[in-house]
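To whoever picks this up:

The nightly regression suite flagged Conjugal transfer protein TraF as changed. Nothing in the input moved, so I suspect the structure step. Input below, exactly as stored in the fixture:
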Amino acid sequence: MTLASTSLTQAQPPHAMTGQYALVFFHFSQCAECHHFAPTMKRLEQTTQLPVYDFSFDGQPIPGYATPIPTNSDITAAFFGDLKNAITPATFLINVSNGKYVRLSEGNVPYTELLKSYQALRADVAIMESLQ
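Regenerated output under the current build:
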């Protein structure tokens, strides 16, 4: 899947992108599961050393993610099709050069499961080629 290029330029993370890949994290400030998942996402961020695009459906922060990027209709449509299809928290691996991405997780998954998903994606030649 590809994220519209206009969305990437409109939604820059709070720090410079250093490399080809980044993590994308969708949440909603009133989502208890998102609050529980945030430390897990921070841990993956630290483990992978990848920057994070932190998107909030209501534009509000959650602990650990103080300056979220508010979603817009283009971003929501690109990742979920329709807002009613969005399950939060949700994570993706994205190629920041071209906007192609793949889903890592939906819901409040444990760190071991999230890391396993990330490692499996990175080891899958077909998936990594599809992100090129």
